[in-house]
Structures are given as structure tokens and as C-alpha cells.
Description:
Chain B: InterPro entries: DUF112_TM. Chain B: Keywords: Membrane, Transmembrane, Transmembrane helix. The complex is a heterodimer of chains A (about 180) and B (about 500). With about 180 residues, chain A is mainly alpha-helical. Chain A has 8 helices and no strands. Chain A has helices at about 1-10, 15-35, 50-70, 80-85, 90-110, 110-125, 130-150, 160-175. In chain A, helix 2 (about 15-35) runs antiparallel to helix 3 and helix 5 runs antiparallel to helix 6 (about 110-125). Chain B is mainly alpha-helical. Chain B has one domain (about 1-495). In chain B, about 70% of the residues lie in helices and about 0% in strands. Chain B has 22 helices and 2 strands. In chain B, a hairpin with a 6-residue loop joins strand 1 and strand 2. Chain B starts with a helix and ends in an 11-residue tail after the last helix. The relative contact order of chain B is 0.18. At the A-B interface, helix 1, helix 2, helix 3, helix 5 and helix 6 of A face helix 8, strand 2, helix 9, helix 18 and helix 19 of B.
Amino acid sequence: MSTSEQQAARPRLAVPELLIGIGLLACAGAVAWQTLAIPVSPLYSKVGPTVFPYITMIGMTILSLLLIVAAVRGGWQPEEEKETPTDWKAMGIVAVGLVANLVLIQPLGFTAASVIMFVLICHGFGSRHPLRDVLLGLILALAAYFGFARALGVNIGAGFIENQLNTVLDSIIRMLRA
Amino acid sequence: METLGHLANGFSVAFTPVNLMWCLLGTTLGTAIGVLPGLGPALTIALLLPITYQVAPEASFILFAGIYYGAMYGGSTTSILLNTPGESATIVTALEGNRMARSGRGGAALATSAIGSFVAGTLGTVGVAFLAPVVVKFALSFGPAEYFSLMVLAFITVSAVLGSSSVRGLTSLFVGFVIGMIGVDLQTGQPRFTFGMSQLLDGVDVIVVAVGLFAVGETFYMASRRYAGKDEIVPLRGSLYMTAAEWARSWKAWLRGALLGFPIGALPAGGAEIPTFLSYAIEKKLSKHKEEFGTVGAIEGVAGPEAANNASAAGVLVPMLTLGLPTSATAAIMLSAFQSYGINPGPMLFMTQANLVWGLIASLFIANVILVILNLPLIGLWVRLLKIPAPQLYAGILVFATVGTYGISQSPTDLVILYLLGGAGFLMRRFDFPTAPVIIGMILWPLAETQFRRAMTISNGDWSVFYKHPLSLTLLTLAFIGLIGPHIWAYVEHRRRRGPEHVPGDA
């Protein structure tokens, strides 16, 4: 293949891979900063709390440098991935859905926030039936809420919808017991 | 013969109606998530970890083990009918299985993989029952230095030896180390890697990491690849009954696959990829129908790797239960379930928690029987799951991801960490970094640190303890060979046939 020979002759700098390498080097820097911030108690002399952080710091630094070298030599991204263009718009809408959930979960409660997230993610993936998605999202969120919150005893933030339904459910249970 | 007595006791635990119900629930759920692309056993068990606060350890481990085995069965259905491997270990099954489905023999492919999974899963479970007590006897002589060296070996094998690149595998592992160290150091009470944030003092929950990498990361990745073209579901045709010729071609492949998968799974290296690929290569070499490989699909190429996959899944339980050494993401999350009960897996587990261990092993036999029934006569049900459209599937996964994460402590901080890890998971998927080492690293690094400090305390701060004990030295040498060996070999190979061939960026 002629392209691979050209690559062999002069490997091109792979920018995304280089950014990953630099990002990891920055992480190694953050690890170093946090490692140096660990106070060492003079009372404990054998193996303090800093030995393993130091090992991690050194390992991270070496590995990120190796990745940067690999990026300069042409990167390692699989061909298949390079050929497929990234759908940034779809990813963006999914991300908006997640942020909406994060912002709304406390004021509106789990169910309402989940329905909004559900509809946005479906939209990002190309679904064009928002009303059907609202209904599906509501059913799923309620199933998740009552499955987890009531059966598993996990406490998820309750909002308006959950409080209403909990009141209804509790009164039904009381009626059945009576 | 001691083992048989323990097993009988185990069956008396597993055969209680409640535990049978957990087993049925686990296997059903496991098959479903195995069939659904984008969901795996590691993610599912992570989301269900809160159950450990509600039920007895026997019940939750029977549930988790059912999910673990069920996902292996379900994954092969997706591979065969959709050509999208549901699990990484079923990549090879897709090679021949999907070709068989396309040439109208999907029924036989599903049958050989389900029955092969049953045969190999049962053999593998027998292997666990008989090998585990042997390993336990051996492991009782381990000191902290040996444990530490064993963990180092496991770190190297799960990240550097397996997978496409040792540098990227190790990078994932070290990211896991960093996450694992966040929080208060248990021995000295000092906060580490918390960036001064009080929310991080308790550390990062494994649920958040698993859900972030596997659910959020996967959703981003699938959203980003909408241009990649879709795989179509091959309609299920052909009878589920195998002909005599197909049985004759399958049974040897099952046994060979099981014999290959179990030992490799039981090594402190783990991973189902290697035995499945090995089994595929062997079956292709031994087959009398070589012309079917890569064309219409050869049944041996489905039977062998499927058996190897399930046997190695059983094998992974040996180091996990006997040494507390998880070698897959799922096993690492199960280990954290043990920790949540305050139980430490290791040789003592077989003495102190005999009911739990043997009940779990017995339930694996039951799970295999349930699974072969669930996956053959009821196969039509699972095929229908494949038709769930991607938008609603991934949106639904994220609703459950929110429940699992927000439910831990109702703190939006957890959601922020979840989404950041989801972004990282996307990059890892896109740039070919393995994700399992992150989970294994974050669970095992603090345990390695404990053993290291214990060893150093016993030896009065003398480092030589790690290389003066012969076993510890052997393990560390093996780890070193595992790290350096492949590179030297590649270099020698490269020197030997120095041609125009250039492998771009072999990091």
C-alpha cells in the first residue's frame, strides 16, 4: 500500500493523541502536586502514606511521555475510527441532556429531571418522536425510582411527582392493610 | 472427597426457595444485559451493589454470579444475530456465528453456543470446586510480601500483557491507581488526592467509576458514531436442533474450549479474550471443513470459543475467591461487594464463610441449568430485546445510571464525577485504551498498599523481604518478564525480518 509507505517515510504528528498525552502529563502533574501536599507524620517512619502516591506519580509521568512519543511518531488511532467522522452534534445534545439532569435533579426531583434527560438523549440519537419519548421516559423513570428507592431502599431525591405518588402509594398500602 | 461434602452443603444452601429465586432473577437479568449491546455484567453488578445493604451475602452473590454467567450466554446471541459482540469475550463468536446466521444456520449456531456454554460452564464450575481448595492450601502459606508480589504480577498481566498495547493498558491501570487512592489513608488518617474537597474524603465509589466508564462513556461513544453505519439483525432461521453431524463437530470443540479456557481464566492473569482466540485458531487448524471458515461459517468456530469463554469466566472465580485477586472488571466489582459486607476474600474465606462460598459454587451449577433452558427454548424472547431502538436503549441506560449514582449519597458532586468519567470513558473507547484495568487498579491498589506496608512492618522496613522470599521473587520476576518480554521479542522479530513494513505508532 502506497499510503503506509508514505507513513513509514515520514510519520505525521497525530494531534488528538498528542493532546491525550499532554492531558495525562497534566494529570501526572496534579498527582505530583497532591502527593507533595500529603503531610508526612514524623511518628510513622516505616512506610508512610506517600510511598504509593510517589510510585503512581512516577508511573503516570513515564507513561504520558511514552504516549507523547507515540503521538509524535504518528499516533495509534485504529484506521476504522479515523475514517468515521465524529457526530459532534449528537454528542453535544447528549451532553446537554446530562447537564440538564445535573442541574434539575435537586429542584425538580429525580423523575422530572430524568424525563428531560431521556428526551434529550433520544433526540441526540436521532429520535424524532418527543411525545412518545416523554411517555417512555416517564414510565422508565418511575420504574427505576420505585424499583430502586422502594425495593432496594436507596434514597433518591424526591420531587413533586415522587411525593404525590408516594402519598398515593402509601394510602393504597394502608387501605389494603385495613 | 472433602470437596463433595462441602458441595452437598452448598447445594443445601442454594436450593432454598429464596436463593433459587435469586439465581433465577440473576440469570434472567444476566441474559438480558448480555443480549443488549452497551450493557455488561460489570455495569449491572455495580448498579446493583446497594442490594448488599439489604440482603444476606449468600443471596447477593448468587444474584451476582447469575448475572455474570448469564451475560456470557446472552452475549453470544448478540454476536451471532447482530455481529456486534455484546461482550468483549464474544468477539470471536461473531466471526463464524454471524456467518452461520447469514447462511441460514443461525439456529444451530445458537444451539451449539448455548449447549457449549452449558458444558464448559459446568466443567469450569467443577474446576472451581476442586481447584479452589488446592489453591487455598497453597495460599495459606502466603505472607504479605507474597500477596504484594502476586498483585504486582496481576497488575502487569491484566494491563500490559493482554490487550493491544502495554503502554495504553498501563496508563489505564495507573489512572485506576489515582482514583483508588483518593480519600483518607486508612493507616495514618491523612487525606490524599482530595484537592482540598471534603466530598472526596470518602473516596470515589466504584459504582460511580464503573457507571461512568461503561454506561456514560459508551453512550457518548455510540452517539458520536452515528455515521458508522448500522448492523442489521439477521432473522433467526433454521431449526434449533442440531443435526447428528453438527453434534459430532461440536462436542470435541466444546471440550477443547473448556480445557483451554478454565486454566487460562484461573491464572492470576484472567481475561477471556486469549483463550477464545486460541480456541478459534485450534479449531480452524483441526477442522475437516476449513472451507467453511470465513465463508458460510463453521460450527466448530462457534462451539470452541464459546466454551472457552464460559470456562474462563468460571476460572476467574478461582483467584477471586481464594486469593482475593480480581482479574476482570466484573470480578473487581464483586470484590468490592465482599468488602461492603466486611468480608475479605482470600484463603480464610473458605473456613470462615463456608456456607457462602459453597452455596455460591453450587448456585453456579444451578445457574448453568437455568441458563441453557432460558437460552434455548426461550431464545425468541431475547431476540426481541435486540429490536429495542438505540435512542431509547441508551437514554434508558442513563436513567438507571443516574439512579445508581445519585442514590449513593444524593450529592450532585457524584454526578459531576460520573459525567467527567463518562467523558474519559469516551476518549478511552475512541483511542483504544482498555477500561477494565481502571476498575481493577482502583480496587486492588489500596489492597496492594496494605500488603506492602504489612510486609515492610514485619521486616522492620527492610526492602529485601520482596526478593529474599523465593516465591515473592518468582512472582516479581514473572511480572518483569511479562512487562519486558513482549517488547524484546517484538524487537528481535523486527530485527530478523527488517523490511519495509512499518507498524505506525506501536505504543
